[in-house]
Amino acid sequence: MDFLTDQDAKKYQEDGYLILDGLLSPAECDELRLRMGEIVDRMDVPEHCRIQFSTNHDEQLKTQGNADYFITSGDKIRFFFEKGVFDDKGDFTVPKERSLNKIGHALHAYEPLYKTATHSPKIQGIAKKLGLKSPVILQSMYIFKQPGIGGEVMPHQDATFLHTEPLGRVMGVWIALEDATLDNGCLWFIPGSHNNGITRRMVRTPEGTYPLTDFVGREATYNDKLFIPAPVKKGGVVLIDGEVVHKSEQNASEKSRHVYTFHIMESQKTKWSPENWLQPTEELPFPALYTK
């Protein structure tokens, strides 16, 4: 039996998102979390994160360091921290495993357990059921949503950051490695909002200019009452159309909300924008989802 039914596919196309239970077993979730613990144990904190603020110049260096570190992370595994987790000497103010916002963006390429989860028969089956002919994997992230400090994610559309011509070729796959609840910052969606296009794009600026990325257009203002919560059990998955509007609240609870998430794109008859922050490289062209 297909993991994704015809009815599920119809609901995804109507709402722009879909929640499915049981993509991964609890044991598979624990294995991915355990491996991430090992990666965090061994991480080298990038120097720009530890810059001690003393002048505007230092602050600019830190900002520029952050931007360069981000824009060149598509084919690497890199560490992104929550605000306020370093003191003015560049030392952690919280345990280092509680300091991270996310790790990205090429876990799917270099970490065997994450690669296996990304290319799993269920994921391939979902893509086939949705009619994807030549899907490729754009990027992947591990999101921590730390207890007490996991920041709010403002309403946005993934296509703002991952732009294609035509639109509608990108899908996020968001796997809960722990229960994602109303208390610890589950996703919220505006059903049907994927039918309205996008109002804002993040683009690379011309080479040699700073900042390295900029926004064209503005995020629309959304009515808070239109958002519907999407809690999901450990091992469940949320499929996210690239144009659907979604957000998550701050995690004020004492429980983390670990997630493994990646984006796939139908590459057939699709133009990937050269202005996107994320670009395939010689080291890592976007890998095909369907393994032979």
From TrEMBL:
SUPFAM superfamilies: Clavaminate synthase-like (SSF51197). It holds the Pfam family PhyH. GO terms for molecular function: dioxygenase activity; metal ion binding. The keyword Ubl conjugation does not apply. The keyword Ion transport does not apply. Its cofactor is Fe cation. InterPro entries: Phytyl_CoA_dOase-like (IPR008775). Keywords: Dioxygenase, Iron, Metal-binding, Oxidoreductase. PANTHER family: PHYTANOYL-COA DIOXYGENASE DOMAIN CONTAINING 1, PHYTANOYL-COA DIOXYGENASE DOMAIN-CONTAINING PROTEIN 1. Belongs to the PhyH family. PHYHD1 subfamily. 2-oxoglutarate(2OG)-dependent dioxygenase that catalyzes the conversion of 2-oxoglutarate to succinate and CO(2) in an iron-dependent manner. However, does not couple 2OG turnover to the hydroxylation of acyl-coenzyme A derivatives, implying that it is not directly involved in phytanoyl coenzyme-A metabolism. Does not show detectable activity towards fatty acid CoA thioesters. This is Phytanoyl-CoA dioxygenase domain-containing protein 1. The lineage of its organism: Eukaryota, Metazoa, Chordata, Craniata, Vertebrata. The gene is phyhd1.
